[in-house]
Structure of Phosphodiester glycosidase domain-containing protein:
Amino acid sequence: MDLRERLAGTILLQVESRGEAWYVYPKTLERHYLGRPEDAFALMTELGLGITSTNLAHIPIATESLEPPLNEDSSYRELTMVTDEGSFVVHLITLRRDRFDMMTDTAEPEDCDKDCDALSLSEYVSRHDAFAAIHGSYFCPPDYEACSNVINTFLPPVYKTAEEQMIQEDSLNYFQRPFIVQSDDESLFYFHRAPDFGKSVLEFEETYHQTMQAGIGNWPSLVEEGESVVHSEPSESSFLVNGTRGGIGWNDEVIYLAVAKNATVPNLAAIFVAIGADYALNLDGGGSAALYYDGAYQVGPGRDLPNAILFKKR
């Protein structure tokens, strides 16, 4: 009897004979012979337990940790993220904040207002010996007819880490969109609007007693203090079209680089909330989307880019 109680609800294979199968019914502990497939199906239908869709919905979906595995500095995975706005395929890089330095760069050495240079994401990676990278801000690509006279130009301020120089520094006065910064002591700053940063790098460094290391702006803001804010941000019709979306976010421990497939910008905000980001900024996407990790593209390469975000191991 003890053996049957331990085996209740299981199917047993009589391997030393001809592989016959037996089902131990939990209520009576009797064995039921599973003969032909149709007989086995009929038995399971008669004795099996069912569940309604309503009750099934109460069973929580298991979620895996989105931080790098223990004893590892980083991870990359392609996964399906379940959010309040649906399920989305996401390419996700996670980087421990205390193990990586953020860098930002532009292809042009100076401000540029037309026919600007651009590089592939892998070229930015090679330039800085980076470990991970993602495409940067919105820009005017050469394959857009409306951009024929302003190819590869962009509006947001972007800091060139290696040269310690802000490109589009004048836009700090009027760029009424988010701006993110990392300082040399590993602090990350999320400015809801670029003018909150200050009128210059010098003003920021004097105000916060930090040395600037990286910085880039774009729009809209996705997540602030762990909550989606995208619906309170200025919107554009293109934000509501399903497409390839990219963004950067972080919490106290981890930086997230994400590219989501068949998603809107509000969907991307929901993804970053589900990931566990305290702050997240939308980046470019579509044909510009590119994600690089540990020597290889995971998304892209996409178009050449006038700016990019990179991470180098400390």
